[in-house]
Specification:
about 290 residues, mainly beta, 5-stranded antiparallel sheet, 21 strands, Jelly Rolls, 1 helix, single chain
Amino acid sequence: MKKILKLSLILVFLLSLLPLAVFADFFEGTPSPFLDPRFGTLINFDDQPTGNVVDEFDYVHLGVASIKNIEEGWPLWYRDDGPQSPPNYVGTGPGGERGTDSPLGWDGTILIELIHPTNQIGIGIANSKGGPEEIMALASDFTVVERIETELGPNDRYFVLTSSNWDIKYLKIYGDFFAIDDLQFNSKVLDIKPGTDKNKINLKSRGKVKVALLTTSYFDAFEVDPASVIFAGADPLTWLMDDVDLDGDVDILFSFKIQDLDDLNASSTEASIVGEISGDPFEFTDSVTIKN
């Protein structure tokens, strides 16, 4: 009996070391002009005139670290007059031909990198005549979070990829004779321990932990009332307005005493921050790893 109990305790301990399950999925929405769902940050590529080349860093200010065609031979891609979300969709054009399937050009492998990982990202695929497109949501280490192979067809379509974790860092689209439009993604506002991914907190430490609220297209950190902010049960020790994520926006960086994080314990997997912005309450959550 003692041996069985001991083995059971060991099994429970080993299971506790396993990472939480991450659930990923995708669904099909409705493309423009009746775009649905509508969420987060929207980039419809209509900010510049038709015919302009899409520069790799055109949308850093909106949370996109880079956006480019990674196939050799036709590195430039541009805005073209298209029926999906007019006036522009984007692709490699007639010169983007790799010699497979349809010989009409517009082939490519488009890689979109976000500044901060997201839990949901959407993309429109226009006029897929050459072959089915492969759409992949990738984590920061390029492991596949979710994958879609679209059906061959001439119609415009819209796809949304989701993850139960904020681990979608890249969106990769491979195809033959296609264009993209209406990139959407949720922007992360709360960043615990900026610059790190694992957010490890040692509750025995007598030090401090830094926590940032990041400005996004729908959240202006400059308007936050710092005195109203509480993180995991703790009041802030200090706060500083700064461009934490180096995207050109003003963010706010707090420090909290670890011994004051009363809402966290050895089994905690996430932490929340609450406060007021322009008089309205807000609450955001991020994952944490408690270090023993």
